[in-house]
Amino acid sequence: MLETFNSLMLGFSVAFQPQVLLYAFAGCIIGTLVGMMPGLGPLAGISLLLPATFGLNPIIAIVLLAGVYYGAMYGGSTTSILMRIPGEAASVMTCVDGYAMTQNGRAGPALAIAAIGSFFAGTVGVIGLMLLAPTLASFALRFGPPEYTALLLMGLFVLAYMSGGSMTKTLAMAVLGLLLGMIGIDAMSGYTRFSFGIIELGDGVGIVPVAVGLFGVSEILLTAGQQETPRVQNPTLRQLIPSKEEFRLSAGPIMRGSLLGFMIGIIPGSAHIISSFVSYGIERRMSKHPERFGNGAIEGVAGPESANNAAATGAFVPMLALGIPTSPVTAVMIAAIMIHGISPGPMLIQEQPDLFWGFVASMYVGNVVLLILNLPMVGLFVNLLRIPYAYLYPCILAFCVLGVYSVSNSIVDVWIMLAMGGVGYVLRKFGFDLAPVALGLVLGPMLELSLRQSLAMSGGDYGIFLQRPIAVTMLALGLLLLALALKPMIFKSKDWRSKVGLEDQVE
Amino acid sequence: MTGHKTGLRGIRSDQASGLMLAVLAVYVWWLNREFPVGTLADPGPGYVPLLLAIALGIIGLLVAVFGGRSIPLFNIRWPEATRAVIILVACSVAAFALERIGYRLSIFAFLVFFIGVIERKKLLAVVLVSGGFSLASYYIIGDLLHVPLPVGPWGF
After folding, report:
1. Given A216, B3, B96, B121, which is the most exposed site by the fewest CB atoms within 10 A?
2. Terminal-residue alpha carbon distance, chain B
């Protein structure tokens, strides 16, 4: 415990450096703006900002990008509450009761509770990250290729089980992503695969063009053409203060949402999205007056907002401790760190303590910055929402082209982004979740390498996965979840989604 | 003929997408033929793609088999499709122009096309937004953040 405290002090000494503070502040502001803009979620925002971090030192780069990430989580809630437009997918549930509160003249308290809940959840998440990541990292030092293979497979099964929609469709998207990850030079044999003669594809398909295409461009393709600029309420500072009753009703959902969100955040998938859906379902089920939900229940804002922020922080645990992304956002952040020659994973905390603890401490600072930003400055931010979409979406598209091109000065990346935008548009029309594609793309090369190494170690015997206790436990857990996910499909019974009301919301 | 049309009309969206995934799996398998699969003890570069193609094929078929309750394929509406195609084509042209006429000019033309031609906004607004965005973004990203951006043959 004392060691953790000392390490955290080291982190604060890094986080309080004026330059780091400045970038944390800038990241939070950019993130809040990004989160408020339809078509620019945290993933697109981070991807587009990636080239700007090349010239920064790695600590500042990760602090800036993390600020954008959780800033976008906060920002998304503002548009959900005021306009019923989720700035990013995790804020969909906030729309339901948040906007109903706005219609009831309670937009201020809804915004305040969302900000307070996000602050509390963010802090819980950082404490969890601080306590769990080092322990997990030391445990992961025992991992060899079979354990990593089992871990990645378990991750994919958990992803399928926890997905908001159909399990088979989620798995299909994950496999599609894994196949995209096969493009390029094979690390073990030197063969160039599926490159169609395009030299740039020899390095593989980058996560940034795929992420910006799937999430940014496809969103614009779906929403371009909307003409109206909705009216926006602009609550004063006095109107932001919630009543005692609203505080009392929100306390439980904020605490439950924080713990639930953090736990869901650690597992793979669109954790922050799923956590807000699950939290909403749980609060509605636990409420003595479930009929209030949908009509402006503050618990419907407090729970999901806390959950999605805690999940955003929870996702950093496997990223930093194992070097494994559990969401497309953390995948891009891993790419950002690796550009600086640092490999996230079990050795990171030992070899780069200032980076890890500086990052943790900067998240404490970032949470305070966001609380200060989101409440008094909400009036300033909502002005952005008054920009007509006819001006906004061409500028967002130009940013997408600019951001993707500047990652590696490659026009091929822009073509990939556009192709992915088109593919993402069609897949979304058919009800496919796109996050597993981005996740599969990053996990693909890792899974291939660890599987082939495992088979080489065992002389081609798949039994190696059954001989190693950690690997067999993870595989058994993954298969158990897969079986649980298959059960409702075969026996036509209800699964966890319908139990928490997720299916109703998704459809 | 009528029966054939009725059959197509009855196709559900998941059945169509599942079959498309299965077709894609076959295509990947076909492309993968040129890479050695190797042996179990020494898997080659074609080994994992082959496993993934098989997995995609099976999952695609499962999506199709369990897709009987999804919405009918022809009930999916595409009201924004024309605009989506225009956006993709315009972005492609901008991407093509980027390294030829430079960042500022291509983004300026790109925004003029969207805001002026597609959205039919007033000329002054079009020029101000397009010019302002292309110059300001170049200054922030290119000059302040030192990210190299393409410059045209005329030096800007």
Report:
1. B3
2. 61
